[in-house]
Amino acid sequence: MKAPSAAQPPSPVRALAEPSPAARPARPGPRSGSGSATDGVHGGACVCGVGRASRARRAAVWLAATGLLAVGATGCVTVHGERALVPSVQRADAAEALERFVRLTNEANTRLDPSVNTQAETGALGAIDGAGIKARHVGSPAGNPGYKPLVLTDSRFVIPRQRGWPKWFVVDTADNRDKDRWLLVFTRDSVAEQWRASYLLVVAPGAEPRFATDAKGYAEPVPVTGSGLLVQPGGLGPAYAAYLQRGDAGSPDFAAGPDTTALRTQRRTQYAPTPQVVTQFADSGADPVRYPPVALRLSDGGALVFFTTQHIMKQTVAKGPVRVQDPTVNALLTGTPSRSVTLTYVSEQVVTVPSATTSGGKVAFVDRIAGLVSATGQ
Questions:
Q1: Measured in whole angstroms, how far is the alpha carbon of residue 361 from the centre of its chain?
Q2: 35-65 per-position pLDDT tens digit
Q3: With b meaning 16 or more CB within 10 Å and e meaning fewer, what string describes 322-334?
Q4: Which of 43, 259, 284, 295 can bridge 365 by disulfide, Cβ–Cβ 3.0-4.6 Å?
């Protein structure tokens, strides 16, 4: 997908910013080659590349939570979530968290109020959506009364057993935007916090990943280190950043595709330096405390991993001033763009990572959503 202009000096300066999901054309659905945009919940989010499904088969059994404890007649039992291995959430609480998420998402997008969105989302999803809502509020301070409320149906809960914090679970759900399904990761750092969504994956019906389960039907969380995977979940962000900067010399573990080889080619060609404009990129793994990766074991021994990266794009013109035309960039812009504009993106990725023992295995992208979170003129 070709990106529209973001900053406009005497000659066009192009940026990676793309239309919001509501405005962008239908993107190919995973595996099927057709699908629609996921407009609404991540208003203002941008997609770099197109969505693809993993090659995993449809899950044979989706998980439902069971009771944390069977309480005897003699009294209550206290389980310390920081030490005991327990389900991360009870199914009723997971359903309540999802209902709360939908309610707050609809309120945030109707009022265009980023503060409401922070109650529903956190992590990469929260950063992307929060910036998008903030930008749209600048253009529509009275809100968006024409917003189509989000409705989620046929929701299934993928619940791991965990020890310690943060705790998280996954919801596989249908939405009223298109025929694709969403996988939402919900997380919280303590019992005193509300559950908030931190990641989003879009897949075609029938392409949902097949998770490994234990004897009681719970999903298996994968640790950020010592996972037995080709690349540790905690190392995926830095590895992907290194790949974008130096290709296989930075990291040889990524499969070719729109978010790897094609993205590097785009940077070399679409953003090649000219006498009028020079574009520079910097990539990094995101702060693991603010944006912790989440991984679930797949039935083939690999894992589905959600992780976050940060990408900076600086465009400098030979002769200013820079004229910023993209409304999203303008809404988030601070400083005076005399000669350059620096754009900062947060990107959430979902990949399949094979076991370290898989011969010739590569990290494969399932979906990637990137959104502009700040812009600075200099």
A1: 23
A2: 333 333 333 322 233 333 333 322 222 222 2
A3: bebebebbbbbbe
A4: 259
